[in-house]
Amino acid sequence: MRGLAKKRVLITGGARGIGAATAARFLEEGSKVAILDRDSLGLQESRNALPGIEKTLLADVSISREVEAAFSELDRHWRGIDVLINNAGISVRHRFLDIENKDWLEVMAVNLNGVFFVARSAAQRMAKQKEGGVIINMGSTNGLTGYPFYAAYNTSKAGVIELTRSMALELAPGVRVNAVCPGFILTPMQEAEYTSEMLREFERKVPLGRLGKPEEVAALFAFLASDDARFITGQCFVLDGGELAGGLASSPLR
């Protein structure tokens, strides 16, 4: 991709899954990469696997003071940020009637509050920079259509999508803001939530006949952050193997 060499890129939720794949992709593009996560062991494992990572930041995105402290540490290292991949998120699978307050609040705290806290800190810095910056928030197809058993997650991702659009309007022209909305991507989080049979059923629902790969999401992040996408802002990009094209997403998974 054009224009990513030496860009300062921060990836939240960068210790595993899509975040780790995204760190690897931006390193391949010649970017300077920092990852932020609340998983200290995962951060160390990512650093060992990807020695090109310049900085690891231990923080919980749902706690604003930890986010602010992480950005202060990043300021001392880079004195600015060019690209934010706002990827950190969690999921809890429950029937609506069985959702407990603590689960609802935790999903909102990480997936929506956390996206806001990190985006605000990044945007404050980008707005002062001559070349602005790029923010890409992690949405989901869950934020675009109904899925059973994921009321909290669906609501949080719908909020991220509207936050993205609002940010894009207010931060233009200096800062571009978009969202990526994956469908079924095989990550450690999905493997922990679903049985092998459930994963096979997901595959049968997807027109392309398989689940997505973290590196495919990383490739879209790289494109949207690059100069090739410099006229794109305020958009939500679906990456789902054709699932939403047939309205298959809302079919219940038993």
Explain the layout of strands and helices.
Elements: E1 8-12, H1 17-28, E2 32-37, H2 40-49, E3 55-58, H3 64-78, E4 83-86, H4 101-126, E5 133-138, H5 151-171, E6 175-182, H6 188-193, H7 196-205, H8 214-225, E7 236-239
Parallel strand pairs: 1-2, 1-4, 2-3, 4-5, 5-6, 6-7
Helix pairs in contact: 1-8, 3-4, 4-5
Q: What's the total count of β strands?
A: 7
Separation of the first and last Cα atoms: 41 Å
Which segments are poorly predicted (pLDDT under 50) over 5 or more consecutive residues? Answer: none
Largest sheet: 7 strands, parallel
Average pLDDT, all residues: 94
* Overall radius of gyration: 17 Å
What does this structure look like?
- The chain has helices at 17-28, 40-49, 64-78, 101-126, 151-171, 188-193, 196-205, 214-225, and strands at residues 8-12, 32-37, 55-58, 83-86, 133-138, 175-182, 236-239.
- The chain has a 7-stranded parallel sheet, sandwiched between helices.
- With 254 residues, the chain is α/β, with parallel strands linked by helices.
- Helices cover 44% and strands 15% of the residues.
- The longest helix has 26 residues, at 101-126.
- The protein is built from 8 helices and 7 strands; from the N terminus they run E-H-E-H-E-H-E-H-E-H-E-H-H-H-E.
- The model has no long low-confidence stretch (mean pLDDT 94).
- It is globular and about 45 Å long.
- Helix 4 links the parallel strand 4 (83-86) and strand 5.
- The N and C termini lie far apart (41 Å).
- Helix 1 packs across helix 8 and helix 3 (64-78) runs parallel beside helix 4 (101-126).
